[in-house]
Amino acid sequence: MKRLLAATGNAHKIEEMQAILRGLDITLIPMKEAGISPEIVEDGETFAENALIKARAVCAASGEPALADDSGLVVDALGGKPGVYSSRWMGEDTSYHVKNAELVRLLQDVPDEKRTARFACVMACVFPDGDELTAEGFFEGRIGYEERGENGFGYDPVFFVPEKGCYSAELAPEEKNAISHRGKALRRMYELLEEKMAHEDSHRQ
Ligand code: IMP
Q1: What is the model's pLDDT at position 128?
Q2: Distance from the CA of 83 to the center of ligand 1, in angstroms?
Q3: Which stretches of the chain are assigned E, i.e. beta strand?
Q4: Residue 50 Cα, ligand 1 centroid: separation in angstroms?
Q5: Which of 60, 72, 100, 119 is geometrically suited to a Cys-Cys bond with 158, CB 3.0 to 4.6 A?
Q6: For the chain, what is the largest distance between any 2 Cα atoms, rounded to a whole number of angstroms?
Q7: What pTM was estimated for this model as a whole?
Q8: Are strands 26-30 and 2-6 parallel, antiparallel or unpaired?
Q9: Ligand 1 pocket member 64 (CB < 6 A)
Q10: 6, 19 in Cβ contact below 8 A?
Q11: Ligand 1 contact via 85 beta carbon (within 6 Å)
Q12: pLDDT tens digits, 33-63
């Protein structure tokens, strides 16, 4: 079993990563458990840059392979905002109830067809030999007119999912994982890790 350090302190993300990567010959270890907590400045301009910044920092600090993700909400009518600033938008300590109300207010005159938005996620895996893998996933939807639903987190209550006919916060966790940006990026990363391990095994024989 190979070790892979999860470059996040978010227990919810670690659980989701563990569930999806379960089939691989990998044990996912929260970085804190491995005694790693590097100072990380997420100053990238894209989700991929930020995911790589986090994975590189944890790999460099530990000497072990590291997996990180970066995600956010991209609203077309706001020119892609809040994007990579999703958690910092309106201030880190501002509640999502307030942020969601502001999103609805900013889009108050925007018609249905122009309210398109997506959650984006990039997973990055960095190895001590310098090898880097990235995988992305998107979750398409529209900004709604009010908050609905109790599940999920962040912007889920204002994110309407046309293919389900409800808001993201109204989806059960398994339902959301099956179609979400993070679920898609993780399943793609699963394939990339599987290929890398098969390649390494064939070189060892
Ligand atoms: P990070 O990837 O932990 O930096 O978080 C990015 C931010 O994007 C979160 O704090 C949320 O504001 C937003 N976000 C990312 N994924 C989701 C999601 O699945 N639902 C709701 N908000 C999300």
Answers
A1: 96
A2: 10
A3: 2-6, 26-30, 66-75, 116-126, 132-143, 159-161, 166-167
A4: 13
A5: 100
A6: 63
A7: 0.94
A8: parallel
A9: no
A10: no
A11: no
A12: 999 999 999 999 999 999 999 999 999 999 9
